Amino acid sequence: MNHWIDRNVLGFWQEKEMRLEAAHLLDLADEAIDNSLSVRTPFLGLSLAQWFEGVIQKESLSYKAQGGFSDSERVCYFLGQNGQDLDQVQNGITLLEVLSTDPHVALEHRQILGSLMGLGLKRELIGDIHSGIRGMIVAVVDEIADYLLQEWRMAGRANIRVERVQGELNLREDPGEERRITVASSRIDAIVASGFNVARGVVQEWIRQGKIKRNDLMISKPDLEVKSGDVISCRGYGRLRLRDASETRKGRIGWSIIVFQTQKH
């Protein structure tokens, strides 16, 4: 296969695992350029998706991103030769509704993801997970949908049944809580501490424990600078979506954020 895309763009990624994932995406893009058939990537987190779209925008490709929901954070890219109409291509994504067999037991995001990973599935096969009116809704690639419909029966300690979503998608609205916070700097530990109302030292310990991600990538440095549009997740607490920042009259930084907190810590 020809390498149409310059592999020097892989230098953006310092971690070996991320470079390997990114290299696979470039191989898929080269395949789309070479052939008349459309190509679909795995589900990508925010950081990898932003990088990949920045790369393919400069190439002779048609592309679209879909994740199964109108506001998907994790998306698959569909690639085709320049000028190819991808609207006629099936999206290759199935939405599954996961219901507890006990009406008194509510399912949570971490139960759903944990049980899927426990089945030996890779994260790249799984998209966003949302709360529905009746249960949880999860996006998966078509290739594993039938397997899950037949074999997935437990999420944590809860017995479940799984159905294919048909017709209108009924999601539970979670607009989050808009807040204005003021910090001395835009370090991630300062933002998370203020957003979740915890001590900065606690956040630094979370980072050491691998509990915090920015744009779906685990971080290891508390002094990492954040920017508008970033999504920061903390396992067991929730997510922060950063909107915009401005300097206050006292020289501090005011951030507009949206906080999505889990119901249980």
TrEMBL record:
Keywords on this record?
RNA-binding
Show the InterPro entries listed in the entry: Nucleotide-bd_a/b_plait_sf, RqcP2_RBD, S4_RNA-bd, S4_RNA-bd_sf
Where does the record place the RNA-binding S4 domain? 186-247
Pfam families referenced in this protein's UniProt entry, alphabetically: S4 (PF01479), YlmH_RBD (PF17774)
One GO MF term on file is: RNA binding
What is the protein's given name? RNA-binding S4 domain-containing protein
